[in-house]
């Protein structure tokens, strides 16, 4: 020691003194000499943090006392017989200093275990450390309701448990039939219950008497088309997720960039109308901290709905070791909804029930808080997570029926009541509803709660109701009266005739003319810009057409040059063959044979161009002709027998030549 555990620094564990009154209760043990410290709003300046030392001491009356001292002013000592009472005095002192923190701090006074948490007794590690102190065993037996039974009775109980475990498992139907017989009997063996069913969204499990699954309530699941605006607003007060979202936005409005603190009525109006305020809230919850400034610009169109639909339908890839392949996770909406809210398009969002829309908004808030410390620090850079308990909201009080009452900061008189679940044949899930909607109803409910607290001796309920009636109710009434006076004053000012001087009129006229001139110049500049862009596009188009025309002309010139080259080549080959023909005729020297040889072949050598079986000189075959030391490609067009018994004459056409080049070979 000292050792830091969460937001609490444990400095000393102390020692357990069983003879002192108040040294334990049903849940915690309070050792004398226990000392811890933590940071909280300073009693000197609530806008800054101060270090508070909490310790357990022995009082002069022989009882355990709890003392809290702030390091900023050690002369002020807050001492009480309970941990909640000592820290309640600290909360009350801070609330009396600043008007802004009075509502939140005063409401926190009535949270049952807030002082226990500030001391650190509710931390699991500290509880285990205290349980290991000398003398803690007697307290643990006392808290568990156990006594030192004889060894024989313990052995009998073990034998009964073994017999029960060896018996076959009883089905849920048989167990329900025998439930009435088993109820109320003591010292019976433990019976293994049937496997629990998986709960769906909104269902609650009740472990009283029998295991039952209580179906979820259908608040907010009605179609909007079948409800008027008053019914819709009433239904919004029964959706606890919406109240949780409102508290979340109040706690983190600085990090999210929400400047104004919306009242409950304004928040519900924006939620029903899906106004730009609600669009910006959705975007700030989905965007990263660096991009949240772009939310107002993105809220002008429906891009926020496309982003929301894409977010709910997103799936991630993961490696399945059993299958040995990559698989996709379930869509994000499946973690809190039974079906895709927008399977066909974003326009389906406006037809969703109110509870589904509230669940989507609540899920976006929960996702920001999930993850490690780095993830939270990136989303909320201005939040000190060491003192995160100060952000958590607890019930203000409980009545004799087990109902919990929640009062949110800035709710303008709206008090919520949450009823506990009920088991048995008339099983009922917890319900959440508002018992007051304004300051007048809040005063009436507070008086009823005050009477019930005095009758049932519920001190927490009595103190909270007294605070509502004596402090919160009159404060809200004075605010409402001030707003009404401001509205009436504004209405009277609008009805009164206004006197205007000539200088004011001239100034307004001059400003009007200047504004018109600015608008005219802006329009002229816009027209000039459009004209310049048009001319630029025309020039680019003309340049593209010119380049295209030049390419076409160049292609025509290239084709003509290639054609002329081919004709020149054919003419050269033709002249060469004619010269060779004349040379051969002159060498023969026989005039009688000259006429015959003019129609007979002048080439005596040939070969097959492609490997082929059969007579290679048949019609249609490709051959090559030897002429002046070069081989020329040709096609056999016709054949006839030659002068010798084994001679064959072929009429060929040269590849790339004309009909005038054809000859007998």
Strand runs, count: 19
Q: Determine the mean pLDDT.
A: 77
Please, what is the oligomeric state? single chain
Roughly how many Å is the radius of gyration? 48 Å
Q: How much strand? A: 5-15%
Q: What structural class do you assign from the helix and strand content?
A: alpha+beta
Instruction: Work out the helicity level.
Output: 40-55%
Major beta sheet, strand line-up = 1-2-3-4-5-6
Distance between the termini: 118 Å
Please tell me what the overall shape is.
elongated
Biggest sheet record: 6 strands, antiparallel
Q: Enumerate how many helices there are, as a single number.
A: 20
Low-confidence segments, given as residue ranges, are 99-111, 142-151, 168-173, 175-190, 204-220, 591-602
In short:
By secondary structure, the chain is of the alpha+beta class. 46% of the residues lie in helices and 15% in strands.
Helices and strands in order:
Elements: E1 3-5, E2 8-12, E3 35-41, E4 49-58, E5 64-70, E6 73-80, H1 83-97, H2 102-109, H3 114-119, H4 124-131, H5 136-144, H6 151-166, H7 172-182, E7 204-206, E8 212-214, H8 229-236, H9 240-251, H10 253-256, H11 264-273, H12 276-286, H13 295-298, H14 303-312, E9 317-320, E10 325-328, H15 354-369, H16 373-379, E11 397-398, E12 404-407, E13 415-418, E14 432-436, H17 439-456, H18 459-495, H19 502-588, H20 591-597, E15 606-608, E16 622-627, E17 630-641, E18 648-654, E19 663-664
Antiparallel strand pairs: 1-2, 2-3, 3-4, 4-5, 5-6, 7-8, 9-10, 11-12, 12-13, 13-14, 15-16, 16-17, 17-18, 18-19
């Amino acid at each position: 020691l000292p050792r830091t555990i969460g937001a609490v620094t444990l400095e000393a564990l102390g020692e357990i003194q069983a003879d002192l009154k108040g040294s334990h209760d049903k849940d915690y043990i309070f050792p004398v000499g226990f000392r811890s410290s933590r940071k909280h709003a300073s009693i000197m300046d609530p806008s800054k943090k101060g270090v508070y030392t909490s310790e357990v001491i022995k009082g002069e009356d022989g009882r355990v006392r709890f003392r809290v001292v702030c390091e900023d002013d050690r002369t002020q000592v807050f001492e009480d017989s309970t941990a909640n009472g000592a820290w309640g005095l600290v909360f009350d002192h801070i609330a009396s200093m600043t008007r802004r923190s009075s509502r939140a701090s005063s409401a926190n006074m009535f949270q049952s275990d807030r002082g226990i948490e500030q001391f650190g007794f509710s931390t699991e590690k500290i509880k285990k450390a205290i349980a290991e102190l000398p003398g803690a065993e007697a307290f643990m037996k006392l808290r568990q309701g156990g006594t030192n039974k004889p060894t024989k009775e313990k052995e009998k109980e073990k034998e009964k448990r073994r017999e029960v475990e060896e018996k076959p498992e009883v089905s849920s139907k048989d167990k329900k039939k025998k439930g009435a017989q088993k109820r109320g009997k003591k010292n019976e063996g433990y019976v293994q219950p049937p496997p629990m069913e998986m709960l769906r969204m909104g269902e609650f499990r009740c472990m009283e008497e029998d295991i039952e699954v209580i179906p979820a309530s259908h608040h907010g699941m009605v179609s909007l088309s079948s409800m008027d605006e008053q019914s819709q607003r009433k239904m919004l007060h029964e959706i606890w997720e919406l109240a949780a979202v409102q508290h979340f936005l109040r706690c983190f409005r600085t990090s999210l960039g929400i400047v104004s603190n919306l009242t409950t009525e304004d928040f519900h109006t924006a939620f029903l109308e899906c106004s730009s305020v609600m669009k910006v809230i959705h975007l700030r919850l989905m965007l990263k901290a660096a991009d949240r400034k772009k939310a107002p610009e993105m809220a002008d169109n429906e891009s926020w709905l496309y982003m929301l639909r894409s977010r709910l339908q997103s799936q991630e890839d993961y490696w399945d070791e059993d299958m040995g392949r990559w698989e996709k996770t379930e869509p994000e909406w499946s973690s809190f909804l039974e079906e895709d809210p927008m399977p066909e398009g974003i326009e389906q969002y406006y037809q969703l029930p109110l509870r589904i829309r509230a669940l989507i908004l609540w899920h976006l808030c929960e996702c920001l808080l999930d993850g490690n410390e780095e993830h939270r620090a990136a989303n909320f850079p201005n939040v000190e997570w060491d003192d995160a308990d100060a952000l958590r909201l607890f019930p203000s009080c409980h009545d004799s029926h087990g109902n919990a009452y929640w009062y949110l900061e800035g709710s303008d008189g709206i008090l919520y009541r949450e009823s506990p679940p009920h088991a048995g044949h008339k099983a009922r899930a917890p319900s959440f509803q508002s018992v007051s909607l304004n300051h007048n109803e809040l005063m009436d409910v507070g008086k009823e709660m005050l009477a019930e607290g005095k009758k049932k001796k519920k001190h927490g309920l009595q103190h909270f109701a007294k605070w509502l009636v004596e402090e919160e109710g009159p404060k809200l009434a004075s605010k409402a009266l001030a707003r009404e006076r401001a509205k009436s004053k504004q209405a009277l000012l609008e009805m009164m005739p206004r006197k205007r001087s000539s200088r004011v009129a001239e100034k307004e006229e001059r400003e009007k003319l200047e504004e018109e001139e600015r608008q005219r110049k802006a329009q002229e500049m816009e027209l000039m810009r459009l004209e310049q862009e048009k001319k630029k596009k025309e020039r680019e188009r003309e340049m593209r057409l010119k380049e295209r025309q030049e390419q076409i002309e160049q292609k025509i010139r290239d084709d003509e040059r290639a054609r002329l080259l081919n004709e020149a080549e054919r003419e050269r080959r033709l002249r060469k063959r004619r010269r060779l023909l004349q040379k051969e005729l002159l060498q023969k020297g026989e005039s009688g044979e000259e006429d015959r040889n003019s129609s007979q072949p002048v080439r005596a050598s040939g070969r097959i161009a492609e490997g082929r079986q059969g007579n290679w000189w048949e019609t249609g075959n490709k051959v090559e002709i030897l002429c002046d030391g070069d081989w020329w490609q040709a096609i056999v067009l016709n054949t006839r027998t030659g002068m010798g018994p084994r001679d064959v004459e072929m009429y060929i056409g040269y590849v790339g030549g004309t009909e005038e080049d054809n000859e007998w070979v």
